[in-house]
Amino acid sequence: MRSFILILSLLFAMPLYAVEPSEVLDDPVMESRAREISKELRCLVCRNENIDESHADLAKDLRLLVRERLVEGDSNVQVIDYIVERYGEYVLLKPTLSGSNKLLWVAGPAMLFLGLGIGFAFVRRRQTETAIDELSEDEAARIAAMMKE
Question: Which helix (DSSP H) or strand (DSSP E) does residue 8 occupy?
């Protein structure tokens, strides 16, 4: 029975946030804004976690920086812009479609279509090279003669 309860509790466990009680803002509205912003920012150490879920020291510094900027009166967009300016666009979990990122967004599908085109051309060329023309009457007669021998 204990193992069933343990398995059940693990299945329905909520994700644990790394936000420490000392980081939480007193104002619940400001704290919810900080959490909303933190969901959009990548931990630069863990790479595929947002800064609220990461236990890395750099993620803690980013969480504190977000809260500090909010207390100073910045809007959500201003906070994100400040952090992107400071750490680069890699800090965003959802990169924007602007500037050099357009090349990255287009490169994947372009390489796929290029690979499909090369593969199609290769298969098509192989089919034409291996196609056998019909035999002339003279060739058919020579083969029939060889088969009788």
Answer: helix 2-11
Write down the pTM of the prediction: 0.59
Which residues on neighbouring strands pair with residue 50, listed in sequence order? 42
d(C-alpha 123, C-alpha 112), whole Å? 16
- The residue type of 46 is C
d(CA 87, CA 35): 19
**Please, what is the angle between helix 57-71 and helix 76-87, to 10°?**
140
CA distance 113 to 106: 11
Q: Answer yes or no: are the C-beta atoms of 52 and 38 closer than 8 Å.
A: yes
pLDDT tens digits, 33-87? 888 998 889 988 887 888 888 888 888 889 889 999 999 988 999 999 999 999 8
CA distance linking residue 139 with residue 87, whole number of Å: 76
Going from the C-alpha of 16 to that of each of 1, 34, 79, 99, the distances in angstroms are 25, 17, 24, 35
Q: Please state the separation of Cα 141 from the chain's center in Å.
A: 65
- Cα 98 versus chain centre, distance: 17
Give φ, ψ of 110 to 5 degrees. Answer: -65, -45
Q: Cα–chain-centroid distance for residue 97? A: 14
